[in-house]
Structure formats: C-alpha cells, structure tokens
Amino acid sequence: MKRADSTPRIILRSEHGIDRSLISPKAIEVVDSLKSAGYSSELVGGCVRDLLLGRTPKDFDVTTNARPEEVRTLFRRCEVFGRRFQIAQVRIKNEVIQVATYRRSPTKKSRRRGSRFVSLNGKIIKDNLFGHIQEDAFRRDLTINSLYLHPSDMHIVDYTGGYEDARNGIVRIIGSPAERYREDPVRMLRAIRFASLPGFSFDGATEKELSVCGHLLSGISNYRLGDELSKLLFNGRARKTLELLHHHDVLRILFPPYKWLKAGKNDNHGVIDWMRMLLDETDERIQSGEHTSIAFTMAAILWPKFNNSLTKRSRRRRNFPFHVARDILHQQKIRTYIAGNFVQRVEAIWLFQKILETEAATKGTRLVQSENFRAAVRLFELRSKVGEVEHRKCRAWTELRDQQVIEPQPRLNRYRNRPRWR
After folding, report:
1. Domain 9-169, classified CATH 1.10.1740.10, yes or no
2. Which residue among the candidates 50, 59, 227, 327 is catalytic per the annotation?
3. Which of 32, 144, 210, 374 is the one with CA 20 to 30 A from 67?
4. Half-sphere exposure of 186 (CA within 13 A, CB side)
C-alpha cells in the first residue's frame, strides 16, 4: 500500500477497460453539476470496485470538495442526513445518489482517546472533519474502496494501491488494522463481506486482527449491525460468509443466543451444520431470483436455540412457547435490530411448527390463509432434512402450499412527496 504523501497512480480507460454505459446517467449528471458549479467531483467506492470486477453496481456514490450544505443548494431534491457522518442524498426521478464531502482523519492531537472526535476505546465518534481528496482516500476502510473515477475522461485515480488489490483479489485495510478496527469495528464485517467475493482473500495483517478485535462489535448500535447483517446474509455468498464469521470468532458476537459458539470448538450441537444448510438454500434462492426475507432467515437461524429451550424450561408457565420466543428475540434485538413486524413474523413461524406437526394437511385448514404459512412450511422442510419431523408429513404440507395461488397485491396510489421549500 502507498504512503499518504505519495503520488497517485492514474489508470487510463485503455488500461482498465470500464464500459461507460454501465454508469448511471443520473450519477454522471450529479458529477457534472458539481463541476459546473466550480467544485471537484468523482465517482468513488463500491461502484468503481464493481465496475472493475465486471459487475453492475447497485448504487453510485459521488464525492466532492463541496460541503453538504453547498450540495443542497445545487439540487432541487436534496436532503442532508447524519450526525456522526453527514452526507447529502440527491434524488433524481426514482434514483438516489449519495454525495459525500472529502474528509480527513483526526490529527494526532484530536485522535487522543477521550476527545470529542475519538472515544476512550479508540472509536471515532465524529467524522465531519473535511479535507482534500488525498486525505479522503487514506481515511477510507479498504484499498479496493478508495478508487476515484472521473466519468468525463474515465480515468481512475488510485492513492492507496487499490487498483492492484482489486485485480489480484486482495482485501486490505488502509493503515494499521488494529487501529482502524478500533476506530470503527463495522470495518471488520465489511472486510469479511468482501473477502467472501469469488477469487478474493484477506491480506495477512488484515485477517490477523479480526479474531482479536471481534469483541468491539458489541459496542456498535444494533441499527448499524442489523443493516450490516442483512448485507452479509443476502449477498448470495452467505455460506462462505458464515465460514469466515465462525472461523474468526465473530459469529457468536452477532448472535448473542449462541454466545457459547466459539471458533475451534468441535461440539457445536449441530448449529453450524444447520446454518450451513439454511444459507446454502438462501444463496440458491437469491441467485435464482426467488424471494426470501429477514424474518424467515432469522427464524431459521435461531430455531435450534428456540427448539432446545422448549425442552429445558418448565411448562408450568402460561403461554410457555411465546415467552421463550420473546426472551430469545430480546437477546438478539439488543445486538442486531429487528423491526417489530418482523419479530411478530418470527414468533408466528416458530409457533406454527407445533401445529404443522400435529395437524393433518387438508385443504380446509385455516393455516393457508395466514401470511406466515409459506415461511412456516419452508422451515418445516428444513427440519425434515435433519430428521426432526417425518418426511411424509412434510411432503403433505409442501404439496398443499404449492397448490396455493399467490394473488398479486393491488398497487397503492402514492402521492408525490411535496418539497419542503416553496
């Protein structure tokens, strides 16, 4: 990796070969508007990385030397969000482009623990120190995410060696991994997510500190961890991600009900094998374009804990399974946020299992009218694969489910949001 004071490398279009037609016209429009107003601006981050890897970016991020309030004055539909990290969101028709101002890392003086920029444990609590593009490059997390693309001439500017890392499939933290993980522990999950890409692997120093710093994730808000967990589970590479999380002893941090699930421990009571089977199926559904949801996935991941708890607790308590479900989900919500409607769905999927075990699969049953019926039968199928329920009973329920006709939901007329200015 290059030094912060080194000359950047310029990669010409003839060398990287990115097709300009793959770039969103709206993102190019935002970059051109900022440049027309006298600011510098480029595409940055994941969209440049994906374009280099031959993938179609899901979204496009723009960076500039304009302050967030200055960006807002240039675009009619623009809002500024964030307290720790301010960012402008520009909406053009149905597309949202995020515009971030160049930032710099805290100075050595302000980096002292306990300052208004860095907490006592080294975590950055304020990240609105604006700087120039070179400082912004070395403030980012991974080298492969610190590439800047100019849409006008299609030149890539590389300050950190990210172009070679992207070509060679190396996930490398910018700077000292231990220090950067303390600044923002979520960087560990991002590193694991990118290391699960086909053909990618960790840089030695980047991987070494993962197991050491994993406990720092317990200090991150459950909203941020919930968002990162969704990206890990639904990226089409969840099985490989699971292996990396468990190998580096991070899996038990993300799932408090499985806090005993230590890396290297052979006796995991079949939980890891269950998760492997579940996430293999999840990856297949995502790659084939089928629907899956966070509610079902969380219900399936935590099912062994729920099922085991039912056999251990006394049945004298009223609404016994309901209280067990609430206790487990409360533990999980402390670490990763789960919306209230998803919590209710998880509980329903679990409580449906006993009904599916005892009732016969008949067309007259009211179960098919429930919105959670299909998800409950899907979990029932997974249980039949590990021998928890009879294959014959499972086959009857799946046949009944497949006979259902899914009626399309009526499209709601939505009113256009009025701008807050006149």
Report:
1. no
2. 59
3. 144
4. 16
